[in-house]
Amino acid sequence: MEDFVTEAALYLLERLDLTNAPTLPSLSEEDQTAIDAHRQELADLSTCGKARS
Question: Which of the residues 31, 41, 47, 52 could staple to 27 if both were Cys, CB 3.0 to 4.6 A apart?
């Protein structure tokens, strides 16, 4: 089951596109930095998943 969940998560992450995701103008700089870090982490995880395949 764990392999299935891992593969399902990788499938979703590989197709997740946040390129044009709107950002709220009221976000603080700290919040925006955190969001950017999370986006980078998702991109890194997607890359790792592709390399694993």
Answer: 31
